[in-house]
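Schema walkthrough. Field components (list of strings):
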Amino acid sequence: MSTEARIRPRERDALLQSLRAGVVPRAGQRHVQVGRAAELRALLGDIERIADGGSAVRLVIGDYGAGKTFFLHLVRGVAMEKRLVTAHADLNPDRRLHATGGQARGLYAELMRNLATRAKPEGGALGSVVERFVSTALTEAQQSGADPAQVIRARLADLSQLTGGYDFAEVVGAYWRGHDLGDEQLKASAVRWLRGEFATRTDARAALGVRTIIDDGNVYDHLKLMSRFVRLAGFDGLLICVDELVNLYKLASPQARASNYEQILRIVNDVLQGNAAHLGFVFGGTPETLTDTRRGLFSYPALQSRLAENSFAADGLVDLTGPVLRLAPLTPEDLYVLLTRLRHVHASGDPAAYLVPDEALTAFMQHCSDHVGDAYFRTPRSTIKAFCDLLAVLEQNPGTDWRRLIGSVTLAKESNPDLAPLEPGDGQDDDDLAGFRL
Amino acid sequence: MAFPPGTQHVGWTVTPYPLAVAGLTVPSEMLYVGHGLAAVNGRGPEPALVVPWLPVDWQSPDWDGRSLEDRPSYSQLSPQARAAYLHWLAGGRRHAEAPVGYAFLFLYGLERRVLHDLAFTPAARDVELPVIARELDRLLGLFGGHALFRRHAAGLRRFIEFLDLSRFDLTGLEPPAPDREDVPVALRLGLNCFAASGRPLPAGWALAWLESRPDHRPRAAAVRCPREFAALLARRYPARFGDGLRVRPHGPDLRVEYRAASAGFDRPVEYRLVGRPDVLDQPAPLRALAALAGECADALDPYARLLARDPDARGSLAAVALLPEELRDSPSGQAGALLDWARSHLGALAAVTVPAERLAELLGGTPAKRDLVTAARVLARAGVGMEPDPRMGGPVQTSGPMVLFQAEEDLDAPTAAYRAAAVLLHLGAAVGAADGEVSAEEKDLLAGHLEQALDLSPGERARLRAHLRWLLTTELRLTGLTRRIEALAAPQRERVAEFLTAVAEADGVVDAAEVRLLRRIRKMLGLDPARVPDAAPRRPAPEAAPSVPAPRPAPEETPGLVRLDASLLAARLAEAAEVAALLGSVFSDEDEPDPPPPPVQEAPVAGLDAAHSALLRALAGREEISRAAWERLAAEARLMPDGALDRLNEAAFEHAGGPVAEGDDPIEIDQRTLEEMLGEMP
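Field assembly_structure (string):
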């Protein structure tokens, strides 16, 4: 994490815009990451293991506002830098790990829409990955004088042995055919299939001639297939980031919760037993999502025993080798460094262009502390937002005195939306057989 | 007629009659004339009121409006301005060059009439509102260039429209044109009518609703080809929503508000329809509509992208082939001509032989493989198959006979079984033709057996029959065949022969005709023809079947009838794919493969291969490049657009620490990064 990396204008604008809007930036996180070196090292180790053909699973657990999502995206950025393909999605009532009403397919579709590579970090890279694969096959075909379709089939041969692999290979072949024959429709259908957007087998068969689709039952199998496929396309592995585990915790039906936790168990088992290759999972969730023995992951005994934390790792001792990774809250010192980073990014990395001196940073922190107490560094979202706003005003009104502005900074108290119950009737009771029709 | 000073009379009329004001005759319609009328807010006289005896300076009318104040009032005007205003009125309010203040002064009167007076005289509404609306439209035409005037006049116009339309049931009408800036009044009211009556929403209304949402972001395809988009949506809408979406009557009351320009009003005037909900903002139906619109746009995307690359392609064969299924029924232009040609020849026949030259002509002279594929696809959608079909491994043929046939099923890639059958058909036909003519029996035998032997779908069978017909009409390249056979090693030939035997045996009976054919084939393959036993009942499995270890159950001894061992037969047929692959390489009818691209004489840069390096160089000096241009560049370099972009960016990360190209359309090029990459040249 070289902090002296060049800050590109596009990255700077995107970063500041996201921070000012109070959302986690999708790019350039490395410029503003502070602290959490040990946690990051642990994840870096995971990523290297994935690139070497291993697998990994982590549950990033932190309180509301502690920076889970930010950390997840940072890890994603690191993974892309290490030539991994990443995919991320938030769980919500329409996107779950297990379902019978299309919600698991919804999660898969969202993951594939957000498929990202280093060259396309903002997502939508599925087409690129497929074309990278086909291009390597084409080069091989050109050199050996063989039929490209045959080369593609041969290269995908070992996928065919996995669940759903045969049709997967067929669809990639269809993409090549579409390109070869100039059939955009066929190409589009192939990408739609790979993204899990076909809802019925009939449609898929009509469009592509395959008999299966990606549906609720085989989402995890297809993630495993995809991890193999990205290897064939020249990448080192696949990292899946799934945020907002709390949405599983909030599912009303105990059966629905249990079957979702069962999927997590399957993933944890596969990883711990080494059944998955070049594949990693990072989940983000709040502490109660994990430890609540009534509704949380620990309500599922098999998961509890696997995810239980090392009982010796207490009172300041840490163990970062287990699947559960607890994010320690930021300290005031971390926040100070963060503010210097923000100032640095805002000045596009040029110390001569800093808009405020160091004393302004402490004054700003003091002001925040007076207004919202410890929350200013524990849930730094609004502090960061306010600081970026301040810098923006100073930039657009040169000559304004920062002392005058700091007094007028207002901070909103953060409230945890997760504590609010889900809206009723939001498609969450399909597993309950609650509704019936005569 | 004139008003003597001192009377309390105020006139307003929609029918014009001449009225003398201070000696000038002006048309009186839509004018408050008289004395003693207070403004609506009670502060001072009504601004629009023309008081006939106030002094007017006819000598020097203020044509520039220099003495006009902000929010003028007739009684406060200077005598010069009054003269100009009255002249403007006398001229029929047609002079567009007049200061806009005079138009405003007139508008104040309309505002008062609509917002105040007519509220107390509903009977007059029906008569007056349409006249006032027409006048507003006319004034908008004259003074619409003035933003403030336009805002007020249009606002008042909308208010009138709302009053007017709210009295009717709009469900029988065409939907209003969508407008994202200013949601049409008729749309709000119409949606309410549908919701309140429980009637399903027609597709046109649904689309107008969606497209009038300020937060709706129409997709590129919907913007580029709106006509096709609307047509597609109209087709898919019933499939999704049955006879139409039903909107639940929930929401705030329908209302319209207008803030008058006149100083005679203090606050905005609101007209509210209590009990008639405004459903415009209901999220659930909009979500469903947006999803449907997204799918339609997706389906149109390939078509739209073609039109973006080549705007003249509309109606061309290539464009029609890219249209989604639903829009393809009545193509015109090139595609229409092609279909007419095919249908007129084929008629009700199962298959017909036609000259390929005519097809080439219809496709514009010298069609490439791509064009023939497009033609095949367009024909297939009309239930017409063509043979040879490049998609099914046929040659790119632009002269000589070709076959059109009724194809109920469209196949766009050959299966292994089909490929095997086609090759064997070729072989068989060649052998059959070797003695000078192909007898009808031989034809039936060839086609019939191959069809039954392999697991072919009905569509494949129909195509095979057409393929055979085509094979027999063309001059079979026997020399080529022999030459190709010579390329085969002896064991491979043996396997081909064995396979053919297995096919012949598939029906359990090997008759004399088949034996003759098989022997001929063996001879051609340079094998001993005597190895084919006579046409006597025999056990089907030849000795050379080491791949099937399963012990054979003793066949039932039924005289004259051979019982087949199902597992052996299955194994034989499974071999089909393997042999087909083998044969496919020998008998491929493909023309010589495209010559490899001329070796790119490009020094590789940034660790890229020659093709990618050339592509990178092509980007030098460009700030951005459109997606269409990028696709063309990639095609010239024989690369896939997205894959190449990814590869370039990856190299950029490695050599310069950042991407070189970002964005989708247009693609922005980071020249600094590009220079760094090119600078690495040895």
